[in-house]
Amino acid sequence: MSERHDARHKVNNMREEETESILGVENRSGTQDFDDVEIDELGSYDTNGKQSVVEPNRAINYSHYHGKRPARTDGYLPGFIHGHVWTYLIVLIASVCGLFASLILAAETLQLARHPNSRLGCDVNTVLSCSTVAESPQAEIVKFLGLSFPNAFFGIAAFSVFITLAVIGLCNSPVPRWLATCTWLGGLAALCYAYWLSYQSVFVIRALCPWCLFMMFSTTILFMALSHATVTVQNIPRNNRHLRNYYRLHYDLMLDVVWLLAIIALIIFKEGPALFAV
Predict the structure, then answer these.
(1) Which of 29, 127, 136, 268 is exposed most, by the fewest CB atoms within 10 A?
(2) For residues 207 and 131, is the Cβ–Cβ distance under 8 A?
(3) For residues 79 and 259, what is the distance between their CA atoms, to the nearest angstrom?
(4) What one-character DSSP code corresponds to residue 200?
């Protein structure tokens, strides 16, 4: 019994040493609390303390840490909401919604080009009017060789790219860090573009396009989820403790709700009862 106890104690010590070497744990008192972390890099050991069969799905026994689990240094956060499935699923849904709105806007742009005096289905009143926004100069800000390109066409291209990248993320396929960084920058550019168009619609054109608003909210949610995935899944920037705590403590959810409510309140405050006038 004594020999078996000594062998088991030796195995536990070896596991502890290898765990600390893999995770870069400085000391046991400096470890962080994570609720559901499981590390799969270690294999099993025989009674002589030698590593025998590697079992990738074997989790570490953390009982010898006295309730403290070593902090992972790869940006991992426990919980389904921080995983690649949830974050990139939100990116995918928001991208599909944005693509759908872009297709509708592109079809309505073509309808106005063929029938300039036609009334669109989203022309509700003088404030909620897609045709008023579509006929404004801001609807075609890109011009090349005398040709004008409607904004909706760029939306179709951009959201198609985001859908492709979201599917790659859902499959948990590894991507270069530069590609993940460029994806986030692309989401930021799309957000700024959507907000600029919304600003022009509310304060310059003084008319609101329902499909444009829908696309703007889709772009906002896409950027929120993409930022979440960039930090917790792609670990960009690398090992940023402040950003990880920001998502681990769910501060992002509170900020996202306030963000969306602020946009809705601004629109209602600016237009008021005219939104619902017939």
Answers:
(1) 29
(2) no
(3) 24
(4) I
pLDDT tens digits along 17-35: 555 444 444 343 344 444 3
Task: Report DSSP state, residue 138.
Answer: G
Tokens 């959507």 belong to: 194
In the chain the domains, ranked by start, together with CATH numbers, are 2-65 (no CATH), 80-276 (1.20.1440.130)
**φ, ψ at 121 (rounded to 5°):** -65, -25
pLDDT(181) > 60: yes
Model-level pTM? 0.71
SS3 102: helix
Residue pair 129/208 in contact (Cβ under 8 Å)? The answer is yes
Distance CA 149, CA 147 (A): 7
C-alpha to C-alpha distances, 81 to 84, 90, 95, 137, 232, nearest whole angstrom? 8, 10, 19, 42, 10
9 pLDDT above the threshold of 70: no
